[in-house]
Amino acid sequence: MRGGAAQSSLWLQAWPTRLTPLVDLICIPGAGAGASRFKAWQAHLPAYCRVHVAQLPGRENRIDEAAINDLTTVVDHLAGAVLQIPRRRPILLFGHSMGAVLAYELTKRLCDHQCAPARLFMSATTPPSGQADRAPVESQELERLLLAFDPENKQVIDNPDLFESLEPVLRADFQLLRRHSVSATDDPPDVLTHLLCGRSDPVVPEAAVARWAAHLGCEIRHRTVDGGHQFPFNESLEAVTQLITDEINAVVDQQTHQ
């Protein structure tokens, strides 16, 4: 397991808290996105929640590092970073799109280390069923995927220099998903899980999100909210952060009364 304080600070960008932290929330962005994707959430979460946002190589302050196209390698690093967090506080995980697949596999890894999260939130995702030898994403398909995930990406596609600079990370992220398959397990994560879907998501409809139920144990709660594929950052930002806040409060209350 890869770890160490320096490695942890690379892979997880921690926000300062206004109060003594009582819980840790780990957020993992979608394909191509960096830690700043969650910046708008900062004003909507409890002051006693320490937020850590995953920062994968190849983006923002890690722009000079090569992107990684192997999911297991990414989860190795994230697990090493999460296990550096003091275990006296409960951990919650939120993942969006590709980040939700990482959050699921990270949850399984943490359960193996007797460090199961108190809650798992997975948004805009379906279990991938890729093949290890699948061919890389072609540029035209990459453009099509970008537009499907977020129409605002048209400004990226229309700017050749910008698209060229982002293409290696995007290609690696989509390859990471195309080569990964969520395996059936007789011992699914026993973690209360929220499966979230955007009502007008053109990429991952509600039925596709619901397929995760076959890979999860414990209690599963389904919720469909307003918005397209990027609903946690646009149309339903407040609804999603309020749901997370409610669950954070429930976890803290449970800890207090143990």
Structure in words:
There is one protein chain. The chain has 258 residues and is an alpha/beta fold. The protein has one domain: Alpha/Beta hydrolase fold, catalytic domain (Rossmann fold, 3-Layer(aba) Sandwich). The protein has eight helices and seven strands; from the N terminus they run αβββαβαβαααβαβα. The protein has helices at residues 5-11, 71-82, 98-112, 139-149, 154-157, 160-178, 206-209, 237-256; strands at residues 12-14, 23-28, 49-54, 91-96, 119-123, 192-198, 220-225. The protein has a seven-stranded mixed sheet with strand order 1-3-2-4-5-6-7, with helices on both faces. Helix 3 links the parallel strand 4 (91-96) and strand 5 (119-123). The longest helix is centred in the C-terminal third of the chain and has 20 residues, at 237-256. The model has no long low-confidence stretch (mean pLDDT 91).
Helix/strand order: HEEEHEHEHHHEHEH
Number of domains: 1
CATH homologous superfamily grouping: Alpha/Beta hydrolase fold, catalytic domain
CATH architecture: 3-Layer(aba) Sandwich
CATH fold-level label: Rossmann fold
* Main sheet: strand order: 1-3-2-4-5-6-7
Using the coordinates above, name the CATH class: Alpha Beta
Sheet with the most strands? Answer: 7 strands, mixed
What best-fitting shape do the alpha-carbon axes yield?
A: globular
Q: What fraction of residues sit in β-strands?
A: 15-25%
